[in-house]
Amino acid sequence: MEPSLTDTATPEAGSVLYNRDFLKLWGGQALSQIGSRLTREGLPLGAVLILDASPVAMGWLEVVGTLPVTLLGLITGLLLDRLPRRPFLIATDLLRFVILMSIPLTALWGHLSLWLLFVVKPLVDILSLVFNTACQSYLPRLVGRGMVLDANAKLNLTRSFAEMTGPGLAGVLIQTVSMPFAVFLDALSYLVSALSVLWIRRAERHGASSRDIGDRPGASKGTEIDSPLRTNGPASPPGDGATVPTARWDTRAMAEEIRDGLRLVFHDPILRALAVTIAMSGLFQGILYSMDVLFAMRVLELSPGIFGLTVCFGGLGAMLGAAVVRRLGERHGFGRWLILSRVGFGLFNLLQPLAHGPVWMAALFLIGAQVLGDGCGVMAETLETSLRQWTARDDALGRVNSVCNLLENILSSVGAVVGGYIAAGLGLRAAMLVAAIGVTLSALWLFTAPIWRLTSADLNTP
Length: 462
Hints:
By secondary structure, the protein is mainly alpha-helical. It has one domain (6-205, 259-459): Up-down Bundle (Growth Hormone, Chain: A). Helices cover 72% and strands 0% of the residues. It contains 17 helices and no strands. The chain has helices at residues 6-9, 20-49, 55-63, 66-82, 86-100, 102-108, 114-143, 148-176, 179-198, 251-267, 269-299, 304-331, 334-348, 359-391, 397-426, 428-442, 456-459.
């Protein structure tokens, strides 16, 4: 097995807290994630309250960016494996800042419309997809693969804190000030995030392979894909004279590398199981997340402030999940907790369509779904991302991440439209019920790979 990047990535093997550059990334993401929740909750609430959007319009609001995401997603993965990944983080943050500023500016001039949301949201979603893929691919280079579970847990901890504070803040701002002002604060958070990544001083190595799939217990032999960017031998620290292979930029070579990335995902049993699970769960989560605002406000008759408060409790559950996931994954069965948390995420979300009664009782159902469901959800996401980062070669990690994120994004958009039509025909409660059942059943795909008995020790054993 080739040496891991961990050897030179961080001066302290026990925690990424000793990695100053990771702390810069983490700090910028903490603020950006809070801002992102303002827009995530603010745009749907604004569409419903200010622009009087219908269920079908809410579904289409989620899907309009699907085609460009499909085209750009595969190319993004290829570029991330050919070029340094940090510049992608900076560029996408700055572009999101510029695009989101169009909402408060047009509102200031009195020209805010639903059509602007149909332009801004897909553009921001595309850039967010690129950022997330780049961040997942950049993280092993920043902290070393041995520290990715710890780093992912800490990033998800602040993301969970943002979920706990952001929606409530969004509800209060929209109710007391305005939706455009909430989006303005989100735009500023992206600017701060870009500056924090720009502040990172650690040189980024790229173009070197750090681990082969064949080295990992449980991997099927013969699934290794040779890439034009692949090098043999250990990864070298910056400045030691290591040669970075030259990538060819002709169309045929690029198309072949994209096909290599797809084969790498679907020929390896673990990567295939992760990708299909994420994709199928994304389909039903698309229904869940596009209909939850309408369901809470029109069926359960919750106010924006109370709905935002229930979502805040989801952040509390997610924080608890992020806080314990490293200990559970490393000491009590990595694969076992990955599957259990994925199943729990779906089962606990069944509390949403079961919500009924007066406002206080309905809110308690939603709080239960948020605390328990989001706690399991963040555990599943942390473990799945870490397993993907451990499994794929560094020179193919961008394409592997882009395929998984792309499938989730596309099917989530499809689910949003399907959910709109289910709600229009059968009612919002039926749409939420289909979504929760579908998310639960998607976890069955994980049993098609040798994941249940997988431990973190297996992943670090030659």
